[in-house]
Amino acid sequence: MLKAKSFVKRTRGGGVVKIVREHYLRDDITCGAAMCASCMQTPVLAPTAQRVAVIDTNIAYHNMDVLAHPAVTDVVVPSTVIEELRSKQPQLASRLRSIVDDKAKRFFVFSNEHHRDTYIEAKDGESPNDRNDRGINIHCLADDAAAIRVTALWYSQHLGGAVPVILISNDAGCRSKAADEGVRAIGTQEWVRQLGVPELLDIAAPADTSNDVQGLEYSDYLSPALIEAGLRDGTLYAGVLHVNGDNLVEASISTDALDRDILISGTLLHFSIHI
């Protein structure tokens, strides 16, 4: 199936040229699930998987350490996620690719951008992110569905209830729309609780409860004047932060004011400082 989109563009010389972009869609792209009875494939997702998780881009941005944990398996990564990471955070895209390449992890990249039932066509002048957030009518799938929600819904319908399909998203609005469209969606912390991996709770980014920050309270930052005064009287220290590459909950600060490093243990939510 061929999707063709044409538009005109003015050249530097004042002329006008017509540009045609073609996007080929297929209906034989496999799902990677061993419990699927219709796809002819070498499966990636285990037949004994208790659930199939579909992740959105923000999960890849903010929870890569969670995704890398050995207990996190049987995950579908829409190709949209890979492309957005590659364009904005190439290092994260490379790390996600290394996770996908680990066969023990059972991560499957689904080509939603080239599947007839999951492709979302962009409007004139629409950015890729706006397109993903909008969605269009995709055959029997719900209107106004984001590209990744469309993928999750397609998996749920395609597997026919053989295994629960869950969208993992920390965006409250996305989860709400998913529920309206018939897709179960949960945040990262609930996901790791269901996986029975309590040590991941400290590093799992919390799910949003709203689209804004109402109800959240943060302590004020120190003013520049107080910082300068603290540095002068020795109650504050300035130094260089060194994060332990082998232990994500340990870091140290080296400062000229002390003859030893300051050790920081824990996460942003729970940490201790040792001087």
**Shape designation:** globular
**What fraction, in percent, of the residue positions are helical?**
25-40%
Radius of gyration, in angstroms, nearest whole number: 23 Å
Order of helices and strands: EEEHHEHHEHHEHEHHEEEE
- Count of discrete domains: 2
What is the straight-line distance between the termini?
65 Å
Helix-strand makeup class:
alpha/beta
CATH topology of the largest domain: Rossmann fold
β content, as a range?
15-25%
The spatial strand order of the largest sheet comes to 5-4-3-6-7
CATH superfamily placement of the largest domain: 5'-nuclease
Instruction: State the CATH architecture of the largest domain.
Output: 3-Layer(aba) Sandwich
Largest sheet: 5 strands, parallel
CATH secondary-structure class of the largest domain: Alpha Beta
Mean pLDDT across all amino acids? 80
* Unreliable residue stretches: 131-145, 209-216
Number of strands: 11
- The tally of helices reads 9
What does this structure look like?
The chain has 275 residues and is of the alpha/beta class. The protein has two domains: 30-200, 3-Layer(aba) Sandwich (Rossmann fold); 224-274, no CATH class. The chain has nine helices and eleven strands. The protein has helices spanning 57-62, 64-68, 79-88, 90-101, 128-134, 147-159, 172-180, 188-195, 224-233, and strands at residues 2-10, 16-24, 52-55, 75-78, 107-110, 165-168, 184-186, 240-243, 250-254, 262-266, 271-274. It has a five-stranded parallel β-sheet with strand order 5-4-3-6-7, sandwiched between helices. Strands 8-9-10-11 form a four-stranded antiparallel β-sheet, with no helix packed on it. Strands 1-2 form a two-stranded antiparallel ribbon. Helix 3 (79-88) packs antiparallel against helix 4. It starts with a strand and ends with a strand. 26% of the residues are buried. Mean pLDDT is 80; it is low at 131-145 and 209-216.
